[in-house]
Amino acid sequence: MKRSITIALGMLFLAQSIAVLGQQKKTEKVELKYGSHRIGKRDDAIMERWRSYGLGQFIHWGLYAIPGGEWNGKQYNGAAEWIRSWNGIPKSTYDSLIYKFDPIKFDAKQWAIEAKQMGAKYVIFTTKHHDGFCMWPSKYTSYTIKNSPFKKDVVKEVVDAYDAQGIDVYLYFSIIDWNHPGYQAGNAKPNPFTVESWKTYNPFSSKEKKDKYEEFKKFTRNQLVELLTNYPKAKGLWFDGTWDPAWMKQDGFTDSLEKELRALRPGLIIGSRFRADENGSRHFDSNGDLMGDYEQGWERKLPNKIEDVHGNDWDCVMTVPENQWGYNKAWKGHIKTSNELIEMTAKSVSLGGNFVLNFGPTGDGSIRLEEKKLASEIGNWMKTNGDAIYSSTYAGLEKQDWGYFTKKKGTDKINMIIFNTPISGTYRVKLPAGTAIAKSYQLASPSETLKVEEIHANEYFIHLNKTKGATPFVIVLETTKKVRNGDNNYEKAKT
Ligand code: FHN
Question: What is the pLDDT of residues 132-172, one digit of tens each?
């Protein structure tokens, strides 16, 4: 028993070491056929726009919204959108939910208006989740919205409505497809998982399964081309379910598919989840180079320091309750408040990333009241303080006890996003050498300047005019180059 625990811990350590190593640039590069397609960040205008978003909306909507985490009065304990994988339901019974999908309250225009009010600059919408149900009338399967009582092309309605509100649309697509006869998860990954063991790993337990998987690959490719062709306004694809070892083993196929999709839509944005290299490395190839346009590994977690993001673009996708993406009638565990979500947004931007908040509409197409309330509270905050989020990024300064710094791109403005105010109402701020504060004010009241006191070289006290209540807020520091006049007498201050 003791030995197996030791072995298990050893394996866990090894797996974690491999994962960590995968994110670090290797000094000795290995020759890769299917590694990263680009070294370094994208520098085009489309990607620059992606970087400016700050806040996005994720929507998980599909057949799973009908049971909402409950089947015949029994609660499923996993994430609601995974309910089909539960032994409590015959799979064919789940699949027949297609005949019940008739969301009479679905109003994409209203969703988009509310998303805009929240301050979202992009939306990621589930065109197909793991159950395989297509929210667009795909011609490659009959398991689509077209064959539901609703019939209408939901993806088109979402794309058009959000685009009309100036919100960029990204199409979520699950590689896992429980409905397709050729799909399979693959045999368990080799253990230990090494370059050598991966080379000889066979994900298929029979030739028949391997052949069927070839059909599935064609089907997947066709659906992706179909999505990009049908919805030219969509800016990118957001892949999921690609941890599946059968998919990970398709290195040559996925490498050329990525090239094909990018050729079909120049400027297309794809995150790091799409494919693995020939050694089974995901997100980062075996040389530690990012496999996509931004790091897509921050799901329900955030980096803590700038070193954690290795200079890459990234986004964080987050649920309101613990691990529920699709609609679940009974949210359990901690439900995040708007202040917590605003703090996550601020933290993301302060570390150079975007924050994406998930919504799970109900089976009738409405957005649940708790989510509407959060969206409206976040939106109210963003109206006043959004300038510290949009087109803002890492300021070169670490997180402080009072909150986070962001920097407005192309300006000398540094924002302090405040979540904790000291009883004194005074914040201590250390800026890089050669930086002076020309002016400071709250975003909520730019005409009322704040008293700035220099206490050491490049170190200041910013005094609030009056201490604030329970809402986070932003202090702007308009900075200039510092001119030394030699009359500083910091010792007297004894600070
Ligand atoms: O299994 C899914 C889950 O249902 C949800 O879609 C999230 C969103 O990022 N992705 C998967 C888990 O990584």
Answer: 999 999 999 999 999 999 999 999 999 999 999 999 999 99
Domain containing residue 406: 395-481
The Cα 36–Cα 461 span in angstroms is 46
Q: Which tokens belong to 482?
A: 């510092």
Burial class of 70 by CB neighbour count within 10 A (0 to 12, 13 to 18, 19+): middle
Instruction: Round to whole Å and give the CA distance between 440 and 451.
Output: 7
For the chain, give the mean pLDDT. Answer: 92
Could you give the CA distance from residue 492 to residue 495 in angstroms, rounded to a whole number? Answer: 8
Any domain includes 409: yes
Q: Residue 65 belongs to a domain with what CATH number?
A: 3.20.20.80
pLDDT of amino acid 151:
98
Provide the percentage of residues in the chain whose pLDDT is more than 90: 87
Q: Residue 240 Cα, ligand 1 centroid: separation in angstroms?
A: 7
How many structural domains are present in the chain?
Answer: 2
Please give the Cα distance from 264 to 2 (Å, whole number).
55
- For residue 103, say if its preceding peptide bond is cis, omega within 30 degrees of 0: no
Tell the residue nearest (CA) to atom 5 of ligand 1. 325
**Is it the case that residue 383 has pLDDT exceeding 90?**
yes
Cα 81 to middle of ligand 1, angstroms? 9
Single pTM value for the model: 0.93
- Position 232: which residue type? P
Structure tokens at 320: 């309101």
Ligand 1 atom closest to the Cα of residue 243 is: 13
Tell me the C-alpha distance between 95 and 63, whole Å.
8
Find out whether the beta carbon of 293 lies less than 6 Å from any atom of ligand 1: no
Half-sphere exposure of 101 (CA within 13 A, CB side): 26
Q: What is the pLDDT of residue 465?
A: 87
| Position 438 pLDDT exceeds 60 | yes
CA–centroid distance, 243 to ligand 1, in Å, is: 11
- With beta carbons less than 8 A apart as the criterion, state whether 419 and 347 touch: no
Q: What is the 79 CA–ligand 1 centroid distance (Å)?
A: 9
Confidence check: pLDDT of 352 > 60 = yes
Contact 356, 57 (CB under 8 A): yes
Residue after which a domain boundary falls, among 340, 362, 386: 386
